[in-house]
Amino acid sequence: MSEAPSGGVAADGAAPTDPATPAFWVDPDSAAARQVARWQREGRTADARLVQRIAGQPQAVWLFGDDAGSVARTHAEAAAKAGRTAVFVAYFIPHRDCGAYSSGGARDAADYRRWTEELASGLGTRDAYVIVEPDAVAQLVAGCASAAAAERYALLAHAVQRLKRNPHTKVYLDAGNAGWIPDERRLVGPLRRAGIAAADGFALNVSNHQTDQVSSAYGHRLAKELGGDKHFVVDSSRNGNGPYAGDQAWCNPPGRALGRPPTSQTGDPGLDAYLWIKRPGESDGTCRGGPKAGQWWPEYALDLARRARP
Residue 12: inside a domain, yes or no? Predict the structure, then answer.
């Protein structure tokens, strides 16, 4: 595992030679970066070097509060100044996570539309990738009693359409993972209702651990079912050892490892990028001794980095 940023960025930080290949932005003030600095001050240099494997890679910025517009603007501006592309996750749909570990979201449909407008305005004309609402479609397919399907599909379609009005924003609607809805054909109608036609494509394996090979094969099958013109991105942040075989395989599973570093140079014309959408080291929820969902968990981060392939 390289400690230098990937995503089409040379080891010296230079931009990629192909101007059409995005170089993804590395947040210098991420929780992982702050952990590295803390451990360096404390003399834990070996642990700091391991967690630098996380801190040195581009990762998505999750937007899940009322300040989405200002947060998106700040990070997009920083990425633009560095000549790179920021990756964001829109995560504010009403009844988010169907009341589970990551519950929350907008108060109602009007609040979500306002929030989406502020997010899009914050991004403006700067280059950005946006992953739209992890789990929102797949949860409806699997069964989510707390969410009204018609409203959720309409809000997702609205978010996709509004974000795509920004000239340099690439939009990927989340489609779950290969282990969740194994028959990809069940997603076709729901994704269409959720606005996939207006999106650049769909995202797979967000916060999950399916291998790149499994996700890629699944993505190509789903793209074919959608008509063949949609691309996809894969979250490779924690799939270095593949999925966990025990109970609650999605929630802070033990023995996992960092996966392929983020890059848009995939060698596959249908696969736009491998991304670190889930930020490695942030908890999935209060299971297996973890803190609340989204909170930094240094011990888990260290385990992911320690098991990463060199």
Answer: no
